[in-house]
Amino acid sequence: MNATRAMPISRGASPVDPGAPGLRPGGHGGAGGPGGPGGRPPRDDARPPRDPRRSSRSVYRRRRLVLVAVVLVLLLVWPVALVVWADGRVQHTEALSGAAGTPGTTYLLAGSDSRADGTLVGDPTAGARTDTIMLLTAPGDGTASLVSLPRDTLVEIPGHGQNKLNAAYSFGGAPLLVQTVEGLTRITVDHYVEIGMGGVQSIVDAVGGVNLCWDAEVDDPESGMVWTPGCHDVDGAAALAFARMRKSDPTGDIGRGLRQQQVIQGVTAKLRGPSLLLPWEQVPLVTAGTDALVTDPGTGVVDLGRMALTFRAATGPDGFRGSPPIGDPDYRPGNLGSTVLLDEAAAALFWQQVTDGTLPTQAEQDAANGIVPEGQE
Fold first, then answer.
1. Could you give the CA distance from residue 218 to residue 210 in angstroms, rounded to a whole number?
2. How far separated are the first and last CA of the chain, in Å rounded?
3. What is the pLDDT of residues 175-187, one digit of tens each?
C-alpha cells in the first residue's frame, strides 16, 4: 500500500484553515480583494433595491416641469411675436394735422367707399369716398363715445369753402378730412384709421359673423340689404349690406350711422370670446384686420388694440353712441342739394361733453326713455 506523502510546509507559513475568514471558498476577503487592503469596500447588503415605480414618477415629474417651462416661454414669446408680425403688415398713410392735443385720446374712423377691391361687383362708381365717418373718444375720465358724423353734414372745408363733409376726402384725402373734422368739433384727432368695404366683410367673417337687429322690412337693390324685422345672425356680406343701406331708410344717413355702429358693436362683442386666446384663432383675425386697415404712421397694432377696447366701452351700457345734435336734416343752402345742418349751440356743448367724458351713458339714456335692460323685465 502506498503511503501518502506529506507536503512540506514552508518556514514562516501557517497551515491553511478552510474556515478562516476571507479565505473560504467564494469569500471576499484577502489581500487585494474587495475586503482587503486596497480593495473595494464591501457592498452594503442592507440597502433596499430601487423601486421602479418611484423612478418612473420622478421621470414623469421632470417631463411635466419641462412642459410647463416650454408653455410659459411660448405664452411670453407668442404675444410679442404676434405684435411684431402684425405691426409689419399694417399699411400707413399721412393723415394727422399736428394740432395741439385735446384731453383724452380720439380716433377718426373713415369708411372708404372705394370699389377698387372688387367687393361690389358691377358697381360703376369710380374713385374713393367716405360714406362712414366716426369719432371715437376715450376721455381721461368718464364716458367713452362713438359719434357718427353724417357724411352730408354742412361744414367749412379748409381751402374749399362750405361743402358736405365727405367732400373733404374727395378734395384732399385723409389729411383734409382730419383738418375738417377738427375744425367742426374742436377736438384733435390722435389716430386715423381707414377701412375699406372689403375690410368690413372680411373682419365680420373672421370673427364668425355677428348678430344684428333692425325693426323694418328692407329690400334695397342698391346696397343689397334684404331684411325681415328682428335680429339675425349674418355673415360678412350681409353685414356690409346692413351697414351701407341708406336710401330705403326714412332717416337716411342717421339710420345708416346707427347700423354701422351696431356692426362695430357686434364685432367687438365677438372679440371677448376665450377662443380668441388661441393662436390659430388669432392669426386669421389679425390677417383680416391688417389687410383691411390703413392708419397714420404713428398708429400701430398696440394702438389698434386700445381702439378696440375703447369701441367696447363706447358701445356698452356705460358708453355713448349716437350722432351730434342736428338742427335740420334736410338743409338746402344752394347748389349743394340736401345737407345736414348741426344745431350750432347744442353741438358746441356736445363736443365739450365728448372731451370731458360727461355725455349721458347708454344706460342713462335707456332709463330716461323707460327702456328696461334685457333680463330685468
1. 18
2. 129
3. 999 999 999 999 9
What is the Cα 158 distance to its own chain's centre? Answer: 35
Q: Which helix H or strand E contains 102, and what residues bound it?
A: none
pLDDT above 50 for 22: no
Q: How many CB atoms lie within 10 A of CB 29?
A: 15
Q: Which amino acid, one-letter code, is at 58?
A: S
Nearest by Cα to 109 from 73, 56, 146, 72: 146
pLDDT attached to residue 37: 52
Count Cα atoms within 13 angstroms, Cβ side, for 241: 17
DSSP, collapsed to helix, strand or coil, labels residue 66 as helix
- pTM score: 0.73
Integer angstrom CA distances of residue 102 from 38, 71, 98, 253: 89, 43, 12, 28
Across the range 283-303, mean pLDDT stands at 83
Q: What mean pLDDT is predicted for residues 76-82? A: 64
Average pLDDT, the chain: 80
> In angstroms, rounded to a whole number, what is the distance separating the alpha carbons of residues 21 and 29?
7
Single-letter residue type at 342: L
Identify the pLDDT of residue 27: 46
Half-sphere exposure at residue 285, Cβ-oriented, CA atoms within 13 angstroms: 24
In which region does residue 310 sit, left (phi positive, over 0), alpha (psi from -120 to 50) or beta (all else)? alpha
Q: Which residues touch 130 (CB under 8 Å, ≥6 apart)? A: 110, 111, 112, 113, 151, 166, 169, 177
